[in-house]
Design goal:
Structural class: alpha+beta
InterPro entries: ArsR-like_HTH, WH-like_DNA-bd_sf, WH_DNA-bd_sf
Number of strands: 7
Helix content: 40-55%
Number of helices: 7
CATH architecture of the largest domain: 2-Layer Sandwich
Protein name: Helix-turn-helix domain-containing protein
Shape: elongated
Length: 168
């Protein structure tokens, strides 16, 4: 969907990075993460900043970029990115059917805004339906062309590095 609307692959990567969750980054780090030249990343960062979709802040000598949450289209772009990634539907289905889920996290590459093709999740809860989990993994791959890896924990260790998408 996004690749038919936005022709620049680098711009798509930046939108995924900044609008899939609250993330920030700087030029060299982004170029390294995306395996792109700093020039192509710089051009797209400048375009997105000029459009008001990204804001910048100086941290020492480093210019940091992040999504402009005050932009009128922030929520629409965030929702479009989420749908592109297939996370909204995936999370809703998994959490509703798994049983007594206390918390659900996205971890790994997607939590960092990188579309690697594998969605890693951690579900926290007791007596969760692992048969359904095996079924939904196959269905999810058919629907969004992404592998799903899920780890189940009985309780939250408190140090999970990721995006809390369900629970408090």
């Amino acid at each position: 969907m996004l690749d038919s609307l936005v022709t620049s692959k680098t711009r798509i990567k930046l939108l995924l990075k900044f609008f899939s969750h609250s993330n920030s980054g700087y030029l060299r780090s982004l170029a390294k993460d995306f395996e792109e030249s700093t020039n192509s990343v710089r051009v797209e960062l400048n375009r997105l900043t000029e459009a008001g979709l990204l804001v910048t802040a100086e941290e020492g000598k480093t210019k940091m970029y992040k999504a402009n949450e005050g932009h009128p289209f922030f929520h629409e772009i965030k929702n479009m990115v989420s749908k592109f990634l297939g996370l909204d539907d995936l999370m809703e289905r998994i959490v509703k059917r798994m049983g007594d889920v206390d918390k659900a996290y996205i971890v790994g590459d997607y939590a960092q805004g990188i579309d690697s093709g594998t969605v890693q999740m951690i579900l926290v809860g007791k007596n969760l339906d692992t048969d359904y989990l095996n079924f939904i993994r196959d269905k999810t791959y058919e629907k969004v062309n992404r592998k799903v890896e899920v780890e189940i924990l009985d309780q939250d260790p408190g140090d999970i590095m990721g995006i809390l998408i369900y629970g408090k």
